[in-house]
Amino acid sequence: MSQIPVELVKLIIALVAIAAFVGLNGLVLVYLERKVAGFVQRRPGPYEVGPQGLLQPLADAVKLIGKQLFTPSGADKLLFWMAPILSFLPVLLLFLPIPFGPVATGMEMDLGLLLILAFAGLNVLALCLAGWGSNNKWGILGAARAVAQSVAYEIPLLLSVLAVAFMTGSLNLTTVVEGQGGWPWQWNAVVQPLAFIIYFVSALGETNRAPFDLPEAESELTAGFHTEYSGMGFGLFFLAEYANMIVVCSVAAALFLGGWQGPFFDGAWWFLVKVYILLLVMIWLRWTYPRVRFDQLLNINWKWLMPLALLNLFITAFVMKL
């Protein structure tokens, strides 16, 4: 009997660990989201189920699992159920090249950043299929918004990432992290502050987070692309959104904030601290700023982020050439 390749075993273990990490973080982020919302709006948030409401996310998960799944009349059944699966499954691949620590990387690859950017684009296809396959006018409007928003905000996000890649000469996230230091003044965010700001704002647009949550604007489109979904159909979209938030914050921590390196005792804890600080900022922004109009959303990108990202990239290329 031939032996199983070691790399295949490592890959399977990494995927299982990533799936557990995504599920656990989904519960943690739901709790954080509600508690931050309660704090911002001067109310307690969940506190009945478990001590200080700690078991509320678990109760929500059980409720979603137990809900009946149904296909709306007139919907395309194949597209309708393919959409939530397509939204969630690529997320597991996005975590593979992310270096959580000096040796805590799912799969070391030279083009890891390119893999993340390529597979992250599948999410918008899932949203498009969800809206189109639902045979619902609000779903189709949400899908159209998702496509326009994703196509627009991918460009400045890519340009801001390229600026850092030009500096480090690599698309390997581990190499980018090792090129920085543990102290804040050694981070790429200090050398490339404009790229960091553009990346973070574009990440909000890419993950459909408020104030850029136009594809699912409740006050306008009921729930947008996932209006017709219940139970775990909705749950997979919900989990994929939080997983994508973790991905964009993890990439930001690696590219701009020194990754696992800290002032002392380098390790994965520094990486997770930086990621969760960025996640808290994303949650805080959601409950602080009102939703923008769709024309304002696109104007922010095409009139501000795009020109600034191009200018920053040209300046970076010029300085590196010198």
UniProtKB/TrEMBL annotation:
GO biological processes: aerobic respiration
Record keywords, A-Z: Cell inner membrane, Cell membrane, Membrane, NAD, Oxidoreductase, Quinone, Translocase, Transmembrane, Transmembrane helix, Ubiquinone
Transmembrane segments: 12-32, 78-100, 112-132, 153-173, 185-204, 234-257, 269-289, 301-320
InterPro entries noted in UniProt: NADH_UbQ_OxRdtase_su1/FPO, NADH_UbQ_OxRdtase_su1_CS
UniProt keyword annotation of Nucleotide-binding present: no
Main location: membrane
Subcellular location: Cell inner membrane; Cell membrane; Membrane
Pfam short name (any one): NADHdh
UniProt KW Heme keyword: no
GO cellular component labels: plasma membrane
Documented EC number(s): 7.1.1.-
Assembly: NDH-1 is composed of 14 different subunits. Subunits NuoA, H, J, K, L, M, N constitute the membrane sector of the complex.
Chain's role: NDH-1 shuttles electrons from NADH, via FMN and iron-sulfur (Fe-S) centers, to quinones in the respiratory chain. The immediate electron acceptor for the enzyme in this species is believed to be ubiquinone. Couples the redox reaction to proton translocation (for every two electrons transferred, four hydrogen ions are translocated across the cytoplasmic membrane), and thus conserves the redox energy in a proton gradient. This subunit may bind ubiquinone.
NCBIfam families with a match to the protein in the record: PRK06076.1-2 (NF004741)
Record HAMAP family: NDH1_NuoH
UniProt family annotation: Belongs to the complex I subunit 1 family.
Protein name stated in the entry: NADH-quinone oxidoreductase subunit H
Organism: Maridesulfovibrio salexigens (strain ATCC 14822 / DSM 2638 / NCIMB 8403 / VKM B-1763) (Desulfovibrio salexigens)
This protein's encoding gene: nuoH
